[in-house]
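Researcher: We're reviewing a set of sequences before deciding which ones to prioritize for further study. For each one, I'd like a predicted 3D structure that I can look through quickly. This is Thiol peroxidase. If possible, include the structure in token form so it fits the rest of the review sheet.
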Amino acid sequence: MNITFGGNKVTLAGKEIKVGDKAPEFVAVKNDLSVFDSKENEGKVVVYSVAPSIDTPVCSLQTRTFNEEAAELRDDIAIVTITVDLPFAQARFCANEGIDKTIIVSDYKDHDFGTKYGFLMNENHLLARGIVVVDKEGIVQYVEYVPEVTNEVNFEKALEKVKSL
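Model: Here's the predicted structure for Thiol peroxidase, in token form for your review sheet.
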């Protein structure tokens, strides 16, 4: 897979996740520094919205858009935004932007998500941009790795898949 960041080729750590894979369990850090365990959302459709940093225009747009969409989705759907921003920065961002319908977690500590889902960029230890949709049985139903990390995800296609599950 060819991924670039600002036009420069990057390599991704871990194994590329694919449709049909069993979604790997992972841990991350919540904004209050407690542990987020992916098992918390078992039995739900889960959207993993993956971004390098919420402090950039495209990442903040991605986070705000999914937060807005979350209000329109069923209760059995969880949207989890994952970046490597420190939890303090994520908490500040959520407070400033009114992000209250999605779960925001940080992969800064162990890069557990980044390596298990193949999104960790070796060159800068940020996460590449993309989306992973997991069904209620824990099977990956949609994956998007954005070829140029500074570009937007395909919101419509991902949400179409989510609504069909």
